[in-house]
Design goal:
alpha+beta
Length: 236
């Protein structure tokens, strides 16, 4: 995560970004202490990686980081919260002051573990079938990078990149250019929304031909206004 880029984009939230950085660093440190299994049967034939995450261990890592950064015990079941986060379901109710804080602990726990797991269990390129789901953890992408030669989809959970056709929806496989389209949002140079009228999903596309891009996680946060615009139009 490029924290300086976030502070430049959102200067009014500099204090919150600094806090997020401290949380991220603390959680990442705790997750690095966990044993990462190597040689697992992880890949496109296995969609059980997410279900098999060591949620209790990740919850304990989050709890330790919470106490370290916040100075108190978390008032929520972190294991339940992690499972809800991964399933993209509503998080458990927490105090008003912790509503925005909770995801800051959950995300780096999940992404840190999954990225370490992916690095320890490399999938041969020839096994990647060019589908819309992540070849490693079977998660759908939310962001893509376009270059002169190709489009790469990026998984925001495990960090895997894979090639994909530009004129194709990664969610439903639609290849009809009449029902695939783009729109731009003012103030988001070099990033636009690709939408599919068939399944009503959208993808944020960073055009690296126009500017130097940050990492995918940072670009995702820098383009939150595109998410708001797409969802306002009814896209998922």
């Amino acid at each position: 995560m490029d924290w300086d880029a976030l502070k430049k984009k959102y200067p009014e939230d500099a204090d919150g970004i600094d806090k997020a950085r401290r949380i991220h660093a603390s959680v990442a440190e705790k997750v690095r202490e966990l044993d990462i299994p190597a040689g697992t049967d992880a890949g496109p034939v296995s969609e059980g990686i997410i279900r098999a995450l060591p949620y209790s261990l990740l919850a304990d890592a989050c709890r330790q980081a919470w106490i370290e950064v916040m100075g108190n015990e978390p008032g929520v079941d972190l294991e339940t919260a992690l499972k809800s986060f991964v399933a993209d379901e509503p998080l458990p109710e927490v105090g008003k002051d912790d509503q925005d804080i909770l995801p800051m602990f959950l995300r780096p726990a999940v992404t840190g573990y999954l990225r370490a797991l992916r690095e320890a269990n490399v999938i041969p390129e020839e096994s990647v079938q060019g589908g819309g789901k992540c070849p490693f953890c079977s998660t759908y992408p939310r962001i893509a990078f376009d270059s002169e030669a190709s489009r790469d989809l990026i998984c925001l959970l495990c960090g895997r990149r894979w090639r994909f056709r530009r004129v194709k929806c990664p969610f439903c496989g639609n290849e009809d250019h009449n029902t695939l389209g783009y729109f731009d949002v003012e103030g988001s140079e070099g990033v636009r929304v690709q939408y599919c009228s068939e399944c009503k999903h959208y993808l944020k596309v960073v055009d690296t031909r126009n500017r130097v891009a940050c990492d995918a996680e940072t670009e995702d946060v820098l383009s939150l206004n595109l998410d708001a615009a797409a969802q306002e139009e009814g896209y998922l």
